Amino acid sequence: MLGPVILAASRSDKMRKLVSAAPVTKPVVNRFIPGESVDQVVRIVEEMVGKGLELTLDVVGEDITTPEQAAHARDAYLELIERLRDLGHGTKAEMSVKLSMFGQALEGGHELALANVRPVVEAAAAIGTTVTLDAEDHTTLDSMFAIHEELRKDFPQTGCVIQAYLFRTEDDARRLAAAGSRVRIVKGAYKEPAEVAYLDKSEIDKAYVRILKILMEGDGYPMIGSHDPRLIAIGQELARRAGRKLDEYEFQMLYGIRSEEHLRLAAEGHRMRVYTAYGTDWYGYFMRRLAEKPANLLFFVRSMITKN
């Protein structure tokens, strides 16, 4: 029952001020959101690429209520791409976008989101990198997949995300596991009804393995989004059985979570991509991650104590 409470807090200006002013807040936020500006995140990109890691960058900000705000989100990504061009790291630094930031939930949102995300995908391709469309709650997915399919006509490297806890995802995985596709699989973190999603952790884990097997045996490029050591080991074994080389799939984890594991996988020759969020709207982003899955609160606290 914590989810609705945390989500309500994410929308409260009073709670924002209270949390922002708390002495413990800034160190915690900095652990998982390494900066507010493009200048700060560019330094992070250089540091992490130098360690053999790759990144996917997310400009935080999810409370989009007007077309003007959606256009501002588009422009923030275009500014990021302009700076990434100067670094010349190619696909070592790509981007993740939530279509809700591009106006998907507004009136005429499907067309608006497509119109806003297309120039971002085009600009990314022009500097040798790409974009992955993040999955949000189940009501948005048909629109996301349709936009993904449309973008891939001109930019086939455009990726998308699927969520293991949804009943529909095995069918989505079979459709997406085609040559040239890039698919990130995650467990899923939104609060979904029992009519559309597994709610039991063990059932979600089983579904994750089934879906990852589909991706590994397909012709696309699987991206394993998980911090779970058991699922990481299973992913390695499924890749081995499918005859995949180390550069034919990758692991993805959040910035600030199991950082030593990032380095270990990279040192073993795996492609290890770190999902790195930045921006001024850190409060909304941070609280929403907790609201989507309140167990993350314990996970984040535990991570702060262990530092890896």
UniProtKB/TrEMBL annotation:
Metabolic or biological pathway, per its Swiss-Prot or TrEMBL entry: Amino-acid degradation; L-proline degradation into L-glutamate; L-glutamate from L-proline: step 1/2
Annotated keywords: FAD, Flavoprotein, Nucleotide-binding, Oxidoreductase, Proline metabolism
EC numbers, comma separated: 1.5.5.2
Cited InterPro entries: FAD-linked_oxidoreductase-like, PRODH_bac_arc, Proline_DH_dom, Proline_oxidase
Gene3D superfamilies registered for this protein in UniProt: 3.20.20.220
Catalytic activity from the UniProt record: L-proline + a quinone = (S)-1-pyrroline-5-carboxylate + a quinol + H(+)
Enzyme class: oxidoreductase
Domain Proline dehydrogenase: from-to ranges: 45-298
Co-factor requirement: FAD
Protein name: proline dehydrogenase
Naturally occurring in which organism (per UniProt): Streptomyces xanthochromogenes
